């Protein structure tokens, strides 16, 4: 059981508690888990009844797809069940408790928060809030949910095999992008055709060009003038467009984006092999004092605490 806990904490979340249900149960834990850029995909089973407790995810969205058995979940005050006909979706807020029977084996898919939010934003071409107001699950029998789950299973099978197409870096990257974009089109949310769900007007191309540039190279030393040139407008025009359609200035958005990237990297890093300063420098933070203050203001903990906890 200790080995199972350590494995899942290392691959998924640091503040993860796994406790057996009953007296001296026999555990038959097995898991195939692959980290591929902003997604972590795995097939996991314990072979005995357990209870799992996870603190608020903060940096990721998570999907559980039972292949066998029934999973009972408590999240944000709501109780939900998942089985091979319906997946569960978790937002990066609120603690999670799972009653996981030994008969349940499932696909566990973690997607970095910024990656899914960016994909939903791009798919809808309209402003969305963070965290996304997603539904608690989606159907696995018909529609896009069935296709998405099949895609994830195939990707995991290919990545775990020695000679599959997914072992080629370019193919793996494309498959990874398909998983994220497919999930963005599968999850239930209030955007799209529901007018009441709109959080703002469509973003103009000038704003999207600047956003695309920042997301493509978050560590690059951009000035507002650089972003305005990429967008094909003047500095004042870009700043006003960001104020109206993003709710902040371009450089404020860039700083938040960089902080999110640092947080995500520290959350999955090995505390013995990673350095806070190295990660911060890589994302353009050259003044470590100001960086640490901004980080704590955004996430409520210091960078070193995140690395130590290995969230």
SSE topology:
Layout: H1 2-11, E1 16-20, E2 30-36, E3 39-45, E4 50-54, E5 60-68, E6 71-75, E7 78-82, E8 86-90, E9 96-100, E10 105-112, H2 113-124, E11 137-139, H3 143-160, H4 169-186, H5 205-216, H6 224-231, H7 235-245, H8 250-268, H9 276-282, H10 288-299, H11 303-309
Helix pairs in contact: 2-4, 3-4, 5-6, 6-7, 8-11
Structure, briefly:
The protein is 43% helix and 21% strand.
How would you describe this protein?
This protein has 311 residues and is α+β, with helices and mostly antiparallel strands. The protein folds into 2 domains: 2-186, Jelly Rolls (Sandwich), CATH 2.60.120.10; 205-309, Homeodomain-like (Arc Repressor Mutant, subunit A, Orthogonal Bundle). Helices cover 43% and strands 21% of the residues. The protein has 11 helices and 11 strands. A 6-stranded antiparallel β-sheet has the order 2-3-10-5-8-11. Pfam families: AraC_binding_2, HTH_18.
């Amino acid at each position: 059981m200790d080995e199972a806990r350590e494995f899942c904490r290392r691959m998924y979340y640091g503040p993860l508690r796994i406790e057996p249900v009953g007296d001296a149960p026999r555990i038959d834990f097995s898991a195939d888990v692959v980290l591929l850029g902003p997604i972590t995909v795995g097939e996991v089973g314990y072979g005995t009844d357990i209870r799992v407790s996870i603190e608020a995810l903060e940096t990721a969205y998570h999907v559980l797809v039972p292949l066998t058995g029934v999973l009972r979940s408590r999240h944000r005050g709501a109780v939900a069940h998942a089985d091979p006909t319906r997946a569960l979706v978790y937002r990066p807020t609120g603690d999670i408790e799972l009653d996981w029977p030994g008969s349940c084996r499932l696909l566990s898919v973690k997607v970095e928060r910024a990656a899914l939010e960016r994909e939903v934003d791009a798919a809808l071409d309209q402003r969305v809030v963070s965290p996304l107001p997603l539904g608690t699950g989606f159907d696995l029998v018909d529609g896009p949910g069935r296709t998405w789950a099949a895609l994830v299973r195939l990707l995991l099978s290919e990545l775990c095999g020695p000679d599959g197409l997914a072992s080629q870096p370019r193919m793996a990257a494309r498959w990874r992008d398909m998983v994220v974009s497919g999930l963005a089109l599968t999850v239930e949310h209030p955007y799209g055709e529901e007018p009441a769900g709109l959080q703002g007007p469509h973003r103009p191309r000038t704003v999207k060009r600047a956003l695309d540039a920042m997301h493509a190279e978050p560590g690059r030393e951009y000035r507002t003038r650089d972003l305005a040139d990429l967008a094909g407008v003047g500095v004042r025009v870009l700043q006003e467009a960001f104020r109206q359609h993003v709710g902040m200035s371009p450089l404020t958005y860039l700083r938040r984006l960089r902080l999110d990237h640092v947080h995500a990297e520290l959350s999955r890093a090995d505390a013995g092999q990673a350095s806070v300063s190295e990660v911060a420098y890589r994302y353009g933070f050259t003044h470590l004092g100001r960086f640490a203050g901004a980080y704590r203001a955004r996430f409520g903990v210091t960078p070193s605490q995140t690395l130590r906890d290995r969230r």
